[in-house]
Request: fold
Amino acid sequence: MTPRIGLTRTAEELRALPRAGRRAVVMTMGALHEGHATLIRTARELAGPEGQVVVTVFVNPLQFGAGEDLDRYPRTLDADVEISGKAGADTVFAPAVEEVYPGGEPQVRITAGPMGERLEGASRPGHFDGMLTVVAKLLHLTQPDLALYGQKDAQQLALIRRMVRDLNFPVEVVGAPTVREGDHLALSSRNRYLSAADRTTALEISRALLTARQEAPLGAGAVRRSAGAVLDAAARLDPPLLLDYLALVDPADFTEVPDGHTGEAVLAVAAKVGATRLIDNIPLDLGAQR
Reply:
């Protein structure tokens, strides 16, 4: 039996809920999968039995750019509520657009700054401004002590951490490791659009990352070469992997690290297979001896 879980539609309803202990929030755009469920279970552990776990489900129109179909994004609220309840959430907060943006499209927004113009920001101009604006609004509306985000969206997580620090939000940001399927493909709501042949090609993304991880003790140059070789070969598959970027970056600001860099780095990939664009990344410790 699915545990009893509430569904709230307005901030007023959310504020009226009894609150004891810490509140943890997991922000989503719906179409929940096991990666989200893992985040919710982690939130439950961190909040404790006396705390409260809120899952937000809101398809944010500000994050969709030209050519990105807002209407096509999957909306599965009933299933999302069921998954959230089984994973340990207390309520799902699923506001209407008018609740989040009561004055219509906001004239005042959060600007992501230079980090928001790199990698995903270069591929999707304005995306991170829209993302940070809705995250800021949802933090105000839900008023959590903890906010959890997946590391699969590493650049998004880094920007949220920076916003919280720069703007003095009274919340602890927690990053949770990427959840992968049995074949190592990173869990994503976009995976549903992959055909069997597409998926076979898409697996080369995680293979490139895992191969590069083996080279991390040898430094940045070896990491770039090994990942690049796998992705170059994947471009000749049928269907081909069309690479958007392969970047080895500083996790603090997502600038490329030099070949002599040692210490923490993130190897990030974005590529298209068929009509589906996928992103993935892996944290590395460059130059660390095995």
Remarks:
- The chain has two domains: 6-176, 189-286.
